[in-house]
Amino acid sequence: MDVRFFAAAAAATGVEWQVVELASVAGSAPFTLGDLAKLLMESFPVSASSSTPPLPELLTRCSFLVNEVSQRNLAAVLAPDDVIDVLPPFAGG
Fold first, then answer.
1. For residues 55 and 40, is the Cβ–Cβ distance under 8 A?
2. 24-35: per-residue pLDDT in tens?
3. Fewest CB within 10 A of the end CB: N or C in the chain?
């Protein structure tokens, strides 16, 4: 699965894109958007930028797109070929 980070999320992680191999993190169990959020918080506990909050703090306000469609349900099951966009609030909202 491809995870793309935008704006402050990219600044906090220090990357704009990351591959997550579902087989290595979930095995055969379902892997949800909530599981991905937890994995990302564990993977990036501190900010790569001194002027950006750490990703765990940002994720509480982020929106997610799954294959370019907004997804708010953290129980949504993800697939190996999904593209997940992590979008922090833009322009103060």
1. yes
2. 888 888 999 999
3. C
